Fold:
Amino acid sequence: MKRGTNRARSGPPAAARLGVIALAAALGPAAVSAQWTNRYPRVEGYGHQIYLEGYEMPTLTSGPIDPAASPDGTRLAFASHGWIWVMDLVDGRARRLTSGGAMDARPAWSPDGSRIAFVRDDTRDTWIVVADAGTGAELLSENTPAIELDPAFSPDGGRLYFASASAGTIDLWALELASGERTPITDVAGIELKP
Structure:
């Protein structure tokens, strides 16, 4: 039977320990001061804006998302590749409605089918655009220095509802399309989305 020596483990050599200590000291201040920085305007009272930006902002996809049927059921608006598209459900052809450099998403039809409202996202801010459903001509842009999301027309088409952080927290707002007057609908703590 071979006899071995019984040595206590002393850990890594002293040079390796000093290297680890030096690395920790060099990274220490950076690691302590490193914080996540929000890309979009900050929302008051929302402790984890990373979740807001990760889950509530529009998503760029290579396939269709955010489908919205026209009021008469003959067309389908959707987002894909960062643009809004309109598909004729009779012949199955889709045409691109928007073509800008920002990402367009979440289309919503006006009750008469003549306009489409959607969210535009330039990776630093979001705002609401209303376009002619036939030509794509932009008719209105509702843009504040804050986040705007989720447009929805009123049943009579005279008002546009949307979520906005222009008062600090994300509340629901109404925009009178004839006059341009903005009115807050909610003003409670937290976030209200998808009117």
Summary: The mean pLDDT is 86. The longest helix spans residues 14-33. The chain is about 15% helix and 35% strand. The first strand starts at residue 65 and ends at 69.
